[in-house]
């Protein structure tokens, strides 16, 4: 058996007496365990929030999105679309026209983001499970239908399927100064509301889907599009397809995957997670100061034992190892308990929902948590570093008692 570890274990687990030093050591271990468990829980909540955001955006946003590098729009031709569709792995290419518009329903009105999509948007099946009222459709024969967010429905008091009152959509034109004809300042079209979706508050309160032809006529975009939304075939390599699109389109276009469409948000979330990890690591460091005091007092209390070990041929290295192992038993023992406790709390939240979101949502009722192995690894590594930092000084102090007179 490793001699320094054997002696350190005897000091900590001594059953003959429980003095003040042992009590401080046990309290130190408990503090480390609590701080470790709290860190695991908080990091898991951030992981859960990130997963929640991804699930929301994957519902609303496409797997790949093509936008112009410069400007808001770009022209689309049949040849251009055929080149894109010819790339291996692409299943559906949806043309999109997106802009702000003013809508009015009976006596209510608001500004929304109108999103004109080609009919194959339905084939992407992105919002199938998010429809809460009406039938998912953009056209039925020659009749156009709008798919509106739940927030828009509440604001305008719309009843889906009511053909008596159409939704009036107004769009302000880009006209030259001095235009006196009011009718040329804006365009107006009516459309029936076919269904209502509920995904997330920001989307629900702002978005209306309409047929592409409706948006073309209203906004006068002709062959211009604001983006192309792509659904890849089942089993296709999205990264490979994205790279092939970039090579085909060149520098004039951006090809964005799900994460890149919200890159700033995910960077911010990861940055917050990093700062939380650093903050809790400092809390762990402060909580571990008790270990420093307990080891220092232990070195004073065991100075006679240390002098005996020196007389038996012990070296400074051996004495330092004893106290480093003592600090490791306290710190890493607490860390082990804390990791198990934090993981267990997260498991309970995942399966039984200990803490609710405290709000009505169409997505989930309880706070999302997600355990990631790397969080456990980083937490354990940080605790090892803290243990070495805290234990080194008491270990040096212990080597000073090499010549204590025996009574």
TrEMBL record:
tRNA-binding found in the keyword field: no
GO cellular component terms, A-Z: plasma membrane protein complex
Database matches in InterPro entries: ABC3_permease_C, Lipoprotein-release_system, MacB_PCD
Residue ranges of every copy of the ABC3 transporter permease C-terminal domain listed in the record: 278-401
Pfam families: FtsX, MacB_PCD
Keywords linked to the UniProt accession: Cell membrane, Membrane, Transmembrane, Transmembrane helix
A single GO BP: lipoprotein localization to outer membrane
Compartment(s) where it occurs, according to its Swiss-Prot or TrEMBL record: Cell membrane
TM region(s), chain numbering: 20-46, 274-301, 322-350, 370-392
Membrane topology: Multi-pass membrane protein
Residues of the MacB-like periplasmic core domain: 25-247
UniProt family annotation: Belongs to the ABC-4 integral membrane protein family. LolC/E subfamily.
PANTHER family per record: LIPOPROTEIN-RELEASING SYSTEM TRANSMEMBRANE PROTEIN LOLE
Name of the protein described by the UniProt record: ABC transporter permease
